[in-house]
Amino acid sequence: MVDALRREYSSAELIEQEAPADALELFASWYEAACRSSEIIEPNTMVLATVDGSGQPAARAVLLKSFDHNGFVFVTNYQSRKGKEISDNNRVAAAFVWNALERQVRIEGRAVQLTAEQSDQIFAARPRGAQLAAHASRQSTELQNRAQLDQLYLEAVEKFGKEDVSRPSAWGGYAIRPERIEFWQGRANRMSDRLLYSRTVDGNWQRSRLAP
Ligand SMILES: Cc1cc2nc3c(=O)[nH]c(=O)nc-3n(C[C@H](O)[C@H](O)[C@H](O)COP(=O)(O)O)c2cc1C
Question: How many structural domains is the chain composed of?
């Protein structure tokens, strides 16, 4: 029964006096804690939401590659469903859920393509198999069957032989430039802490507390 999963949250709290004024600083300390936790597999997994032209949202997991004041970076195929949706409307949302720490971080902002040089660097650091897959897979397009996908991969292997694999022009990174970042810390009796950091026009963060 799903309802039997209900449990009390009690391990930590999030209070204004102890939280940094800079949202990125708080994110960095929570991210490091998630990386240290042996109970969290791939703490860099975030669920990314985009919206299509009719207003229909879509959500999927992507991996965070890096983050700093320029944004939260992930890589993907620019021609994928998410890539097309971002090119029409670059407003996105992302959420990290770190259950073992009773924490959630929600990010809202605009996704901006990295420069070709930045994407080249990330691509060059990937394992060769993943580089070949980026050539083989036209992400989010319909396949006839699995054999077709395997064939496309073999074609990429043969095409590059022993040569370095170049970055496909449709593969690259986005930085989500955050406008709002909300930190959620679970507490007993569902009286959880929620601190919302909103970016002001002068680039600082304004903080407010939300009801759980
Ligand atoms: C844990 C996890 C991590 C993933 N990381 C990525 C990623 O970094 N980039 C990516 O394009 N897809 C990633 N995927 C696959 C996406 O969830 C999704 O299937 C794919 O990007 C196609 O999405 P779209 O059709 O909405 O564009 C990941 C899936 C999982 C489960």
Answer: 1
